[in-house]
Amino acid sequence: MNYPVIPLIYAANERFKNTIRFAVEFVDDVDPEALRYATAQVQRRYPYFSVKVEQEGEAFILAENDLPFVIADGEKPACLNSAESNSHLLAFAWKGRTVWVDISHFICDGNGLAPLVKTLAYYYVERRYGSGGIDTAGIRLTTDRIEEEEYLYPFPDAPIPNEDALSIKPKAYDPFLFEDALFDGEGNYAYNLQVPQRELMKYAKSNDGSPVSFVSVMLFDALMSLYPETEQDIVFQIPHEYRKVLSRPLSHDCLARVFTVRLAPKDRTKSTELLNTSLRGQIVLGSDESADIEAINGMLQLNAYMQSLPLEGKKQAIRALVAGSLAKNTFGVSYTGNIGWCGLEKYIRDVHLYAGENGRHHSLSVEVFTLGDAFSICVMQPGRNSAFVEKLIQSFARCGIECRLMSEERFHLADYKLP
Asked: Contact, 77 vs 417, CB < 8 A?
């Protein structure tokens, strides 16, 4: 069976590999035999991820790939869509206590990856420790009937009616960008933090906030502590998925529209409560359903136009779209949501999701995930310097929230070989 590709795949080039790396750090060293067993079960449960990219005429398609997923011994990821990964767009690696899942963002988003990671963790734990105390009702298993909407292309064939369309023109901002001097520029580094969910949500909900708004306020507070004299806008870019408006909750990839919210330097005098409420309001407006529909209809128009283009024309069209949508920002903040680990969390010390492009030099990328009763916050930056993260920990402490530094490391995202 062949699966249609999401048009974003035509934007791929040497600079835009668009890959994700998800790390699961277990409480014990990894058992390679249990990991091999778990990856084999993942391949059975998710046939729509067992694919390779092929060219068919002037288009790309995803064709079935029966070769086994690659499991690398070491932290270096295999190059996706190449012989290194058996031509898969998904591969695994492990070292010490950590298992990495490397996957192309062209076939999966964070919400689509989360169920796969839970399946992997379940079969690994089952083989290593047994399945006692785990609620399998919340985990996708090989015995399941695979729902069609898991793997179908999520976009409709015709435009969606949008009678309540809002005429909102994007505002121009002068965003604060981090100085190159703050970081050494020697590769990408991640600082992995954990904060108790109860402490953060108690503070956030009292001000009608959310994990994204409150973490964003903490980032703003830390930046103001580090750069008290800046007069530039602090700009956050936040992805908003199309699952709700498309009624596709099970889809492995619904894409996302990135919208912008901001805080001004003058906001530094406001209380945490007011900042949280302000950002939450901007996020609610940015998540407007009408804006989602407008963006989806625009993508349908682009896709229809692309069908008439030769392969190189398709690449140029989608790359122009990507270049125009990735505006400069101070922070990119993404939250996958509370996926629930069904009892697996007692075997897992930490999880973190790495994303973003290697060329990011002036902004920071932040991924928020959940693990048991904690939020896992991964702060990614272009170099090793803990100055900002130290300020961030202090910002949480001022709100009475414990923030623990779980690890710091140089991270790598998988390369991607063009078809």
From this structure: no
